[in-house]
Amino acid sequence: MQNKYLIKASRKFWFWFWTQLMNGFAPSDLHGNYKRPRGITIDSEYDINNESGQIYLLVGNSCPWCQRTLLVHEIKHLSKKVKVIFLKADVEHGEWILNTKIKGCIRLSDLYKKANKKIIFRATLPLLISFAKDEVNILSNESSQIIRLLNSIKIQSKYQILTIKDCNQKFLDLVNNSINDGVYKCGFARNQSAYEKASQNLFAAINEIENLLQKNKGDWIFGEELTYADIYLFPTLIRWELIYSKLFKCTEQELSSFEKIIEWRLRFFKLSNVNRTCFDNEWKKDYYKALFPLNPNQLIPVLPSLEEIMRLESKKI
What is the distance between the alpha carbons of residues 71 and 77, in angstroms, rounded to a whole number? Predict the structure, then answer.
C-alpha cells in the first residue's frame, strides 16, 4: 500500500517538475499547444548592402533555424560579405556560448545585453549582427527575415550562384507553422489533444507538399527554380529520421512513404555545399542531451549516420 501512494506522489511531483522545465524550454497556450516566442526584427525598409559595419551571422550546429540561414550563406557564397561564427550548446545551463570572446562576451545572453536587448524570452540563434566601433547592433534573430537579408546581398563571384526566388507567403506560413514548428508542436505538446492536433496538421502539410511535387515539373517545390519554400523545408526533413520521428513522436506516417519528398530531399542535399550545413553528430548529441524534459535519461539512440541514410536513398531512387 505504501508503494502505491509513493508511486502516485512521485508521478505528481514528476509531472509538476516536468511542467516547470517545459515552461523554460517551450512555452504553451492554455490548451497545451506549443507557442514559439516572437523574435527581434529590423525595419522592412533596411538595406543590408548599405551596412557600414562588419556583419556576422551567429549560428549553432544543431539548430534548424540556423541551418536555414547557413543554406543561403553557402548557396549564395557570402563568406566574403558575412562572417559565420559557430556557437556551442551549453547543455548544463541551457544556453549558447561562444568559443572565443566577442566584445568581452562569452555567453550569447551577455551579447544580447550588450546590445541592449534585455527583454526577451531567451537569447536565441540565429543572430545577425553588425559591429561599428564598440557597439553591437542586432539586425535580426528571426531566421525568416535573416534569409531574405542574406539573399538580398549583392556580390560578384567566380561561382555560378543559384538564385533563390520568393514564393507565396501563405504557403511559406504553412511550411513554417505546420512543419517547421509542427514537429516542435508534436514534441512539446502538453497533452494528448494538443499532440494529436499538431500531428494531424503536420502530416496534412507534408501530404500537400508531396502532391505539389507530383504535379509540378522541375526539381523544386515550385518547379524549375529554387525558392524560400525549399530553404524552409530542408532543415526539418533532413533531421527527420535522426531526431523528429524518434524524440518528437512524429510517427503518424513514415517519411519514406512520401516518394517525391524523398527524391526532393536527396536532390537538395546534393546541391553544392549543402552538406557543409549538416552536422548529424551534433544534432544527435544536442537534441538528445539538451532536451531533458523529452529525454530524461539522456540516452542517444543508436542511429545510422546521415551519410548512410542518403546513400541508401540514392540506391532506391
Answer: 10
**84 close to 66: Cβ distance less than 8 angstroms:** no
For residues 224 and 47, give the distance between their C-alpha atoms in angstroms, rounded to a whole number. Answer: 28
Three-state DSSP at 187 gives helix
Q: What is the pLDDT of residues 258-302, one digit of tens each?
A: 999 999 999 999 998 999 999 999 999 999 988 877 888 889 999
The dihedral formed by the CA atoms of 273, 143, 165 and 257, expressed in degrees to the nearest 10:
70
Q: Which of 139, 126, 289, 151 is nearest to 231 (CA)?
A: 151
Q: Which of 165, 161, 143 is nearest to 227 (CA)?
A: 165
Could you report how far apart the first and last alpha carbons of the chain are, in Å? 59
Residue 97 — φ and ψ, nearest 5°? Answer: -130, 150
Burial 172-189 (b: 16+ CB within 10 A, else e): bebbbebbbbbbbbbbbb
Which amino acid, residue 244?
A: Y
Identify the H or E element spanning 59. Answer: strand 54-60
Whether the CB-CB separation of 300 and 243 falls below 8 Å is answered with no
Reported as a single tens digit per residue, the pLDDT across 89-112 is: 887 777 889 998 888 889 998 988
Give the C-alpha separation, 287 to 291, whole Å: 6
From residue 45, how far is each of 50, 129, 149 by CA, in Å? 11, 17, 11
Tell me 243's DSSP state.
Answer: I
How many residues does the structure list for the chain?
317
The DSSP symbol for 34 reads B
